[in-house]
Every structure is written in C-alpha cells, then in structure tokens.
Amino acid sequence: MQSIELSEGARVALLVPGSLEYVEVVMALLARGVFPIPLDPSLTAAERRRILAPLAPDLLVTTSEQLQALHHDLAGDRRGQPRGRPIHCTSGTTGTPKGVYSGLLSPADAAALVAEERELWGFTDTDVNLVLSPLHHSAPLRFATGTLHAGGRLVIPGRFDPTRVTEAIETERPTSMFCVPTHLQRLFAHWDQVGVPDLSSFRLVAHAGAPCPPQLKHRLIDLFPDGSTWEFYGSTEGQFTACRSEEWLAHPGTVGRARPGRVISADPDGRLWCVVPPHARFAYFGDEVKTAQAWRDTAAGQAFTVGDVGRVDGDGYVYLDGRRQDLIISGGVNVYPLEVENALREVPGVVDVAVYGAPDDDWGQRVCAAVVGPVDVGALDAHARNVLAPAKRPKDYTVVDALPLTATGKVRRDAVAALVSETHERPAD
Q1: Which domains does the chain have, with CATH numbers?
Q2: How far is CA 390 from CA 133, 246, 290, 323, 385, in A?
C-alpha cells in the first residue's frame, strides 16, 4: 500500500483481526485527528456496505499487509495524545448501524479523556493487559489503549480459548484484563478440570457487556485478589458507572454509581439519563435527528440516554431493570433483532419473523427466530450464514402459524418465547 496522506477529520475503516499493530494504528490515527472505524472483520460484504455507506471512510483496511503499511507510515504518532475517540458502530431501534462520533476534541478535553481512564483504572507503566475480547469492540480497545498510553504492554492470545488464556496468565503474569461473563464461565469450567492458575499478579479484572449471574460474581470475587474485581455499566455511546465488587456485595444487583464527572437519573418511564463531561459528548455520525433524540436538557446539564431502563437509589447506586427493550446480548455481543429480521425477510416464503433472545448457560442469551410462512429452515440458516456475522445468526428456528401482536399490529416480543414453547409442545396432527 502506498503512503497515503490522511487529512484531519478523515475516517479509516479497520476490518482486520486485532493485534498490537492494530491498537497502535488506532492510537496513531487519533493522535493525527483521524478517526478509525473498528469493525468486525467477519462482517459479510452486504453488512460492510450497509454500515460503511453513511460513514464514507477515506480508507478501507482489509488485509494485514495494509495494516502493517499504515503502521509503518504512522510510526511517529503512536503515543501521541488522542484528539478524539474511535467511531464505534452501534444500532438503534431501527436496526440501522450508526457511528458514534466524538468529533475533534480541544487539547484540554483530549487530555481529560486520557486522564479519566487512567485515574479510574489506575493504568501505569508496569501494567500488562491481557486482551480477551476482539479489539474492534469499544471496551477491550479502550483498556488496551489506556495501558499503552501509560507505558504498559499488551498480551493478545488471539481468539478466546481457555487453555491459551490460562497459559498466558501463567507465563506473562498480566496485571489487568477486561472480560464478559461468558469468558469467566468458560475459564472457570476449564479451571475446574486443570486447576486454578496463580492469579496473584492481577490488580484489575473488569467485567461488563452482559448481566453477571450472582454465583459467577461470587466465584470471581473468591478467586481473584481482594479489591481487584470491578463491574462497569456503559454502552458504545458512553460510560455510566463503575463498581468494585466489594460495593456490589454491600448493594447486591447494583452496577455501581456514576463515574466521576457524571450525573445519572431516571425519568418517570424508568429510562436512564446521564450527564457527561465535555470530552464524553457524542453525536451519531450524519444523523442529526437521532442525535437530538438521544440528548435532552436537565437541571444538571445536557444528558443522553440509550433507552436502558432502571432506577437510582438514594445513595446513587444504579440498578438495571433491562437493557434496551429489544437488545439481545450473546457472549457480550449486542445483537439487534430488527437487523436479523430484515435479513431473514429476504428468504422466499417468509411472511413474518420475530427474533428474540433465549437464556443460554454458555452465552447468556442465544439468538432465536420465530418464522411465519412456507419456508424451509435450512434455507433460512443458509441465508443467515451468507449475510450475517456469526454472533447475529439465529441458533434456533421455529415455524409458527402467526406471531403474537398488539392491538396496533406490533409484535409482542415478550410473548414470542412462550408461543415457540407451545408450538414445540403441541402434538403433531
């Protein structure tokens, strides 16, 4: 790849597996005022086109050779102060992916962005961050860049595998890691078989991305050093809370109190709103209407919501009653039903379809689909494999006579699972 001049404000889409070079490219781009767009390299061609069309990237990086060339070109900027945040993509109620855009930050706000993460998580030059999740996700990338900015180093074992992770813990002696509950479940099951490694090197184990079952949380606390385990609540749009496990023990079920510089409140409908400092503000790239809907004026300042429902007690502890109404969280990955439904509607014979999450011991939730119409389940599965990334593909398909609807004709997602269960139990004619 020839050297390319990227002007301030340009956008670079990254569709390659995570690595140290990947993280350093992200940091170098941001130091130049260029915005990386980290994306899942397993996205299908159709998904890439749909997501990238409104973002109009100036450069698309899809091979390791391109990444290495860009890494070489940006060598002088790898530890510079970031002038913004990566454009991570999320989906709203329409199911259309949107880029979360910080815009270029002032020098003061850029410094505050780095300082907030460093002060909260205690990043230092002696840190060794063990990367368990794909680096195109916002949380693992944030912990990785925070570690490198402080002068620490990364350990990236590759695609999550309990054996490899255990070996890395034993040989690299990491001090920090971010994980989702599914990681913990798989690690603990492996350690039940081979024994628990020496975990004394850890000073920080942070988990988020999905609800953590209480029994899993208690085992996490028991296994890792005292005071090392945390939970936080956030979204692609922004961060809300952080909570030491010792606080969780005193306030079971909480996701913590507002992070420094933030104020969290619940409106009469239970939706959570968060006032953030200037460096944490955002817009949905190219979508002024959606941006306006996400923000409102409060007594404490401009606040945003992602539609999550919960409550805040008298001591400021936040409790979630549910994530976004239709959101499925499978292995810490957000899956939006409407996006999957729209893909399945392309299969001939589909009259209607409803996608929902079902409890799963390994992944928290698995994606399921109830389909109306004369359609073959094999055709649905084949189409999903062609147009949807692995996490979004339904694991179970059920053909039903009709979907449960409200009086206004909207699908009652809360009743779909019960309908599917009845369908499976109904005796054949």
Answers
A1: 11-322 (3.40.50.12780), 328-425 (3.30.300.30)
A2: 15, 36, 28, 22, 7
